[in-house]
UniProtKB/TrEMBL annotation:
<comment type="similarity">
    <text>Belongs to the HipA Ser/Thr kinase family.</text>
</comment>
<keyword id="KW-0808">Transferase</keyword>
<dbReference type="Pfam" id="PF07804">
    <property type="entry name" value="HipA_C"/>
</dbReference>
<dbReference type="InterPro" id="IPR052028">
    <property type="entry name" value="HipA_Ser/Thr_kinase"/>
</dbReference>
<protein>
    <submittedName>
        <fullName>HipA domain-containing protein</fullName>
    </submittedName>
</protein>
<keyword id="KW-0418">Kinase</keyword>
<dbReference type="InterPro" id="IPR012893">
    <property type="entry name" value="HipA-like_C"/>
</dbReference>
<feature type="domain" description="HipA-like C-terminal">
    <location>
        <begin position="168"/>
        <end position="386"/>
    </location>
</feature>
């Protein structure tokens, strides 16, 4: 079993820089040490400005309740990526990774941000296959994705692996891969056979609404591939020149422990306001990003996106130690929204999905009540036209009917 690795800064993928070493002890807790030369290097930055500050001392990286290791795990796979990687390894008669470090080393390094891994500082991270072109996606690939979603023992061809492997480093539940489109990396997100509604089309329509509601979104579009919709969203952690940006999820930023019995944390730290307060000391847009986060919270409440967990919010590093809130992503209505609260806290009533709750702690977003109400009414005005927007985006009448139970702009 491999219990240590070198962590690289891959902002410039073909010239990766070793940053430090990460290892696990016998009970699974982690430790990290920046390289002595790296700390003094011009342009060096802390991988996490709160939990892994730039220092020559060894630092503890406790295993979190979900078995992740903070910002390091942001660059690794989960859910779909784990399933896909397991299928690839099985096809090649290779054993499954035995711990998180082995999972990091099996990554294709297309994950979020700029972090890469190898066993030794003299060995550069394996950048894996080159992302395919959008035109390479096919009906056959869609069938393979459907089969793999249902059956993890689905046999994959070399072509399947070439097309799908870049998506194995990405987080999330939905099947996806990375494609090159108009000179930029995009994430292509596919439907699943067990979807209740046409998720790619609905995500496209929702992002159109979000953009109109004043939410910062990446470029996105909907493509028809082999008579099936595929949602494309530009990678905001990449640049037009092929460089990568450092990325920290809100989950890593807050490092939440398990919720207590009374779930008090939903009122304090495990919340939208908790994100706003944690990012403020090194967020270069300050008040603007706090207001933007509040607007996203209101949008999620109205649109019925109750899967707004901490990994679905993030920061991007603009320069060492200086961050901005990332564009919005993974915003989709959920059919259970009518009876399910938000995934993280909204206000004094915890995760309750109401504007009253949202206003209760608006000051933590540097907003006065009247300013918060202005944002709420601006978002409400856009959401009130959701059915027409969804219809114009190609969402069927059937799916609009299904979603009408969870989208509520009067909450």
């Amino acid at each position: 079993m491999i219990d240590s690795c070198t962590v690289f800064d891959c902002r410039y993928p073909y010239n990766p820089v070793p940053v430090g070493s990460f290892g696990l002890d016998e009970i699974g807790n982690g430790h990290f040490a920046y390289g002595r030369f790296y700390v003094d290097k011009e342009g060096a930055f802390a991988l996490d400005p709160i939990h892994l500050k730039l220092s020559k001392e060894r630092q503890e990286v406790p295993r979190q309740p979900d078995s992740s290791y903070g910002v390091l795990s942001d660059a690794g796979p989960n859910a779909w990526g784990v399933k896909l990687t397991a299928s690839i390894l099985k096809r090649n008669n290779q054993p499954l990774p035995a711990n998180s470090i082995e999972w990091f080393l099996h990554s294709w390094h297309y994950g979020s941000g700029c972090i890469g891994f190898s066993q030794h500082h003299t060995e550069k991270p394996n950048l894996g296959v080159i992302a395919c072109r959008l035109e390479d996606l096919s009906a056959k690939l869609q069938i393979t994705i459907d089969e793999l979603t249902i059956n993890p023992d689905t046999k994959l061809t070399e072509e399947d692996i070439r097309l799908l492997a870049p998506g194995s480093s990405l987080g999330g539940f939905r099947p996806k891969t990375v494609v090159v489109h108009e000179g930029m990396e995009y994430i292509a997100k596919f439907s699943r056979p067990d979807d209740v509604f046409d998720v790619p089309s609905v995500e496209y329509a929702t992002m159109r609404l979000a953009h109109k509601a004043g939410i910062n979104t990446p470029d996105f579009e909907l493509r028809n591939i082999a008579n099936r919709p595929v949602f494309l969203i530009e990678r905001f952690d990449r640049t037009k020149g092929g460089a990568r940006k450092h990325y920290i999820s809100a989950h890593s930023l807050l490092a939440p422990s398990a919720l207590g019995i009374d779930k008090r944390e939903l009122v304090t730290t495990f919340s939208y306001a908790g994100i706003a307060e944690a990012m403020r000391p090194f967020n270069i847009l300050g008040q603007l990003d706090c207001h933007q986060l509040y607007r996203r919270m209101i949008f999620n409440i109205f649109i019925g996106n109750v899967d707004d967990h901490l990994r679905n919010h993030a920061l991007l590093m603009e320069s060492p130690g200086r961050y901005v809130l990332s564009p919005a992503f993974d915003i989709v209505p959920h059919s259970a929204a009518a009876t399910t609260p938000q995934s993280i806290g909204v206000g004094a009533q915890g995760a309750a999905s109401t504007t009253k709750n949202a206003i209760s702690q608006c000051g933590r977003f540097l907003l006065k009540p009247d300013e918060a109400n202005t944002i709420i009414e601006e978002v409400r005005a856009v959401i009130s036209r959701w059915q027409q927007e969804f219809s114009d985006s190609g969402v069927t009448k059937r799916d609009i009917h299904i979603l009408s139970s969870c989208i509520d702009f009067q909450r």
